[in-house]
Every structure is written in structure tokens, then in C-alpha cells.
Amino acid sequence: MEWTTGTELVEFCNQKKCHIYEAIVIQEQKNYERTAEEIYNQMRTNLQVMRDSVNSIFEDQSMYEKKGKIIGGEAKKLRTRYRKEVPLCGMTMAKAISYALATMETNATMGKIVAAPTAGSCGILPALLLSVEETHHISEQSLVNGLLTAGAIGTIIAKHATLSGAEGGCQAEVGSASAMGAAALIEMMEGTPIQAMHGAAIALKNLMGLVCDPIAGLVEAPCSKRNAIGTANALISAEMALAGIESVIPFDEVVSAMYQVGRLMPCTLRETAEGGVAATPTGKKIKREIFSKNK
Amino acid sequence: MGQYSVFDIVGPIMIGPSSSHTAGAARLGYMVKKIVGDGIKKVYFYLHGSFAKTYNGHGTDKALLAGIMGYHPDDERIRDAFSLVHDAGIEYEFLEADLGDVHPNTVKMKVIMDTGEQWEITGSSVGAGKIKIIKINTMEVDFDGEYTSLIIYHIDRPGIVANITAILARYGVNIAFMKLFREKKGCKAILILETDESIEQKAIEEIRQNKNIELAKVIEPI
């Protein structure tokens, strides 16, 4: 039995009495003639690269000195605060958003990252997984399962909508990553497949309409802080779904709505750096400064 | 839309900051390196559209140079590509250009070899680190490097394709996609085969024995 939609995926899991991560492993084995072991191992490698992309910002002094053209140093500021004060939004979220910023800083300095689903949204999954690992003592295998769950959700969005900012705006990148992350969290917290779909639907709805307006066309601002909101949004969406709250609109319908919204978005708000905050006086000034320095 | 692997979504592992402007650019450079082989003297990069506007901000220049040196898109040496390409003795120039009605992230690479031989290869970075080679010298082509690619430069004569596919069949290689392009009847042609299996060197040597084949090259996917 094939599954290509959220509804079909949940049916598949119910029939086979399996988790979402097992469903995607079965599909991957069939489509690409690979063993389950190879698939789990490759995902474990991705997890390790994610770990390094977060840690290098905090550990490697020389890396920290290398800033992006706009961003740099924000992750460490957050860590300093959550170590000293009781974080306003709780420790899990404070750590998570700090890790999201860290990954985006690594990305901006030409460091190694895992596109998840894109480079512009690469901070969300590592942030969620690694913060929850610390605060909720999740095993490495469970983190790998979380990544596979996230990937399963992403394949559905890629097939029925888009994951590209140029096509669908930031909602397609950060929104999708957030939906993928919510499902991963629910899986790691031993929620059910249907709860994971509700969590993903809630997360995607919450960021619907988000435009892609990178200052100077660079994957730095507002991208980095949007990864922080995508991370926070995944946490609150998962929290709701785990409490039994359902998305009023089913996941598959939310995915097509997101695609429709993306198509309605003018070109200026889809990664061209011609609208939104990129087109503000300050946004334009930053662009001029960066490119005059480079010439 | 097509089929997605879970590793298309959580992945690829790459050097930032942009999958299309950095990872895709590195892959385009790499494909060119694999097509032209060793002994690159100088490369002119003609950057079109978004590539032309933002290449220095995204490290597109470093990524292209790293690719030309044969580095993969997840190689941390991309960051130091300028000094490494200098050490390798490869000259380069980046130029803005209008390449016509092509994808916004397109680059034409004119490669001068030590032997004086010249190549012109054009490719686009089409998103999520994926690429497409659209022109090799005078020939319009279309392939993406996702499979093992066999590129055959030959003279347009009857039986060439049959000869090649028979050899591949004997070595148990399954052809996933096959595209044939020619300038005009009886002239230069390119055959591009994308296969599920990798191709043994012995099979390539057999293919090269056909006197109408000028060049046969295998590019493994990255």
C-alpha cells in the first residue's frame, strides 16, 4: 500500500500498527532499494551534522569570531541569559530558540549544515531535537526517529505543495520545517500518528502567509529569527496536539491552502528581496553597505 | 510532482548559506570538472540573473571554484576556495552576463585547458541544491547528475545507440533515462544515459572502441 497524503499515512500506520517513522522507512526501502539499517544510519549522520552545526557556535572560539554579513553572536547572548535568569518562555524553549539561531549562524558563515528542508530553515529541527534531548532526556534512537517522522511530513508537503521560498514564501520553508518539527516532537513524546498530523497542521496554519523577504537577498535576516519563531511554534503546536487538541482543518487541506496562498503571493515577497523588510529604508541601506564592501 | 526521498527533505548535508546559491553552485562546478577532466588552466564564469546579483553575498563564487577543483557541496574547504584555487594554479574570472531566457540561477563556464582545448558548459541551480546542465559546447542538453551519467560525444551514424546499449546490457547496467541530442544529421551528437548502476571501467573501454565515438565519460552522482 502506497501513501502520499497525510490521511493515507495515518491509515497506513493504523493498519500496520506502526509509527510514522516506520512508515517512511518502509517506503524508502521500497523506492530506493535500501536496507532499514542504511536508512537509520544515514539519518544518524544527519543528526550528528546538526549537533555540530549547533555546538560549533558555542564551542569553537574562532568560528564565533567569524560572523555572517548581518547576523552573528545572537545564540550566545540567549545562552548567557537563560543560564543567568529564569527564562520567560521556559528552559526548553529558551534553549531551542538559542540553538535555532546557532545553526543559522553556522549557515551564514559557510559552515556545514543539514538542509531541513532548506538551508533557510535549517535551524528548526536541530533546535527542537537537541533542546528536548537535554530537557526531556530523549535517546539518540528516538531523535533519529523524530528526524524520520519530520522527513515523512516533508515529503507530503513537497509532493502536494512546495518547500521553496521562491515558490511559496517563508511559510513554505519555515512553516514546513515547523510542521515537520511539531510532528517529530509528538513522535518523540510518544504521541499517536493522528496527533502528529494535527500538530503539523496547527504549526503550518500558524505561519500561513509568512513572506520571504531576505535583506540583501542573504539567508540571514529576517531568516534567522524566523527560525526561532518556527521553533517556538513547533513546540506550542506539539504541546496542543499532545493535550488532545485537534486542528479544525485537516493536515492535507492545510497543505493545499498553504500552496494556494503561496501562488497568490506577489513575486516581490518570494525570495526576490524586493518586498517586505528587504525593501525598507534600513533593509536597502544594509544591502548597499554589504555589496559596496565586496566590490 | 515526483517522488521524494526522506533525504531530499532532511538533507542534503551542505555548506551554507544557500542551497541554490551555494550547494547548487558547488555541484555545477563539480559537474563541469567531471566533464572536462584534469588540467584546467582558466575558467570564465558568466553569471546570470540572481547568480549575477548576489554571488558574493552567498559565496556562489567560492562554491563554483571549489566545484571546479572537484570538491563536493558538503566540503568545508569551500570557505577557503580562493586561496586553494590559487595554490592549484587555476586562473578564473567572474563576469555578469545575460544568458537569455534561462533559470535565474544560471552560469556559463568557459574552461580553457592546459592543452588549449576549450569547453563551454551552461547549467542552472534549480533549487534545494539540485542542478541541471543545459548546454555543452554548441549542444543543448538536459540532465541533472542525480544518477550515474554516461556522456558520449559521437558522430551521428546508424547503430551507435544500439551498440552502446548492448554493451551496457551485457554488464547488467539498467538505463533509467536516455537522451540524444545532435547538431544536425550526420554531424556531432551527444548521448546522455542515466543509469541505476555504476558503470565498470571495462564497459567504458568497450564503448570507446567504436570509431564514431570521440569521448565517453562517466560521472558518478554526488
Characterise this structure:
The complex is a heterodimer of chains A (295) and B (222). By secondary structure, chain A is mostly helical. Chain A contains 14 helices and 1 strand; from the N terminus they run H-H-H-H-H-H-E-H-H-H-H-H-H-H-H. With 222 residues, chain B is an alpha+beta fold. Chain B folds into 2 domains: 132 residues, D-3-phosphoglycerate dehydrogenase, domain 3 (60s Ribosomal Protein L30, Chain: A, 2-Layer Sandwich), CATH 3.30.1330.90; 72 residues, ACT domain (Alpha-Beta Plaits), CATH 3.30.70. In chain B, the strands form 2 sheets. Chain B has a 6-stranded mixed sheet with strand order 3-2-4-5-6-7. In chain B, strands 9-10-8-11 form a 4-stranded antiparallel sheet, sandwiched between helices. In chain B, helix 4 packs parallel to helix 5. Chain B is globular and about 50 Å long. The model of chain B has no long low-confidence stretch (mean pLDDT 93). At the A-B interface, helix 2, helix 3, helix 6, strand 1 and helix 8 of A face helix 1, strand 1, helix 2 and helix 3 of B.
CATH C-level of chain A: Mainly Alpha
What is the CA-CA span between the terminal residues of chain A? 56 Å
Question: What's the story with the biggest beta sheet of chain B?
Answer: 6 strands, mixed
Question: Main beta sheet of chain A, described?
Answer: none
What count of helical segments of chain B does DSSP give? 7
Q: Supply the CATH class of the largest domain in chain B.
A: Alpha Beta
Using only CA atoms, what is the Rg of chain A?
19 Å
The proportion of residues in beta strands of chain B is 35-45%
The number of domains of chain A is 1
* Secondary structure: number of strands of chain A: 1
How many separate domains make up the residues of chain B? 2
- The number of E-state strands of chain B comes to 11
